[in-house]
Amino acid sequence: MKNVLQFIASRGFSTSRGRSALHSQLHQSFYNAEQLALQESVKKLVEEVINPNADEWEKEKMFPAHKVFKKFGDAGLLGIHRPVQYGGQGLDYKYEVAFLEALGHSTSSGIAMAIGVQTDCSTPALANFGSEKLKETFLAPALSGDMVTSIAVSEPGGGSDVASITTSARRSGDDLVINGTKMWITSGMQSDWACLLANTREGPAHKNKSLIIVPMDTKGISKSTISKMGMHASDTTILTFEDVRVPAENIIGQEGMGFAYQMIQFQEERLAAAAGSLVPLSNVLEETINYTKQRKAFGQPLINNQYMAFRLAELNTELELLRAALYQAVDQMLAGEDVTLLASMLKLKTGRLAREITDSCLQFWGGMGFTNDVLVSKLYRDLRLWSIGGGADEVMLGIISKMADILPRVEKKK
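Given the sequence above, the corresponding structure tokens read:
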């Protein structure tokens, strides 16, 4: 595995390039020279490994995760801010955000999402709270790209309502016996292990759960694929567990702390969603600006319509403000502050702005926007997920209302 900085040097990148119509001054001032170089290198790797094959993998409804992840692992990109002793780079979180942002150059949102699941959804709790044995056995090969991972929290009867999950993991000697069903599992058909949330004892819903590493080749696990409207290259799975035995030592951290660990893990996931949105949304805005400059109606370019010009300017403003909020959250995280409120706001705004930008841009493309041949139609269906996955908009609003003391107070009956 290469050191990330060695990888950057080997790519022959150039930081001098022409400014696009949507050039971001915030982007240039937030990252240092090494982080900008990292983004250029990630973009080149994405263009070599993912983009030439993206259309084929979209049609096949699956990409070869082990092959792709190994390429990124060999470049040291799957553990940028993870400990060096497990194969990580030991860099600060801003380097990870730079990486996630650059992943947005993938022409397959599903593949970028799957990589983000590996780096920022299934592994944070293991890296932060797992035992040495668990980190050596499961974290190290995930960072090197030798193992593909999944996060298994959602269930058929509860996704965003984490406290209501029913999957159980009961003690049997030195083992746990797992029963239940998990749904909407990214890379579930290919993963080598899953970070699974289950009820491990009786008691209050926030104190009876544990995160458990479950090898996916364990007896008693069955898998079935879910057909989705978007994110086609990323396989999504229903996992059923019937008397699945794993060692009790596979519990991450303290038994009964799984809900708390998952809430912490969610913050990285939600910031990753915001970071991953910036490039594709900027690209679709830029493509739409260029299209409306070239496409003529009634003898003049579409962009001459003041409504279109103003709407695109407004959407670009909204996107730059989302970027500013993300960068603020990153700085606060690096300072050791609690970013739960800001991460929830970012997740909410990311999902809603993605819907707003893709819907408005698709309308400006007219009939061409309704074909499968243009970026806007693909992002229209792919990015719709951001208002649902990782905590639906309504759940984010609930968190924001609670933390900002906006929720109505219900008087207890006497």
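The first helix runs from residue 4 to 10. Try to locate this feature in the token string yourself.
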